[in-house]
Design a protein that fits this description.
Blueprint lengths: L8 E5 L2 E6 L6 H4 L11 H7 L4 H16 L10 H21 L1
Antiparallel strand pairs: 1-2
Length: 101
């Protein structure tokens, strides 16, 4: 299992000594080097999980963020397989749409 600590961080502030991901705002100790520790719509996590081209990747990120904001996807989940399945389906649809152009 890879240890993911190359995400951008910012201080939590308010006297808290820890840092957090600048994208999903979850604390570094909560993330604990795990990709799954980031929220499902975290730009860093989506980028790591996606092997898509840059335009397709941006579209997948936007689609996942929109799905989370509309309550179609949870902000975080313990069962990663269902999320990854949905992420891959969104990516495949967007890739097919881009290829059809």
């Amino acid at each position: 299992m890879a240890y993911h600590d190359d995400y951008e961080r910012e201080p939590i502030g308010g006297g808290n000594p820890y840092y957090r991901c600048i994208h999903c705002k979850l604390a570094a100790p909560e993330i604990n080097g795990r990709l799954e520790g980031h929220s499902l719509d975290c730009e860093y996590r989506l980028g790591k999980e996606s092997g898509a081209s840059e335009p397709s990747q941006r579209m997948v990120h936007a689609a996942v963020r929109e799905a989370v904001s509309q309550g179609l996807l949870p902000k975080s989940a313990h069962g990663e397989s269902e999320y990854l399945k949905m992420h891959n389906q969104i990516e495949a649809v967007l890739k097919a749409a881009l290829d059809a152009k």
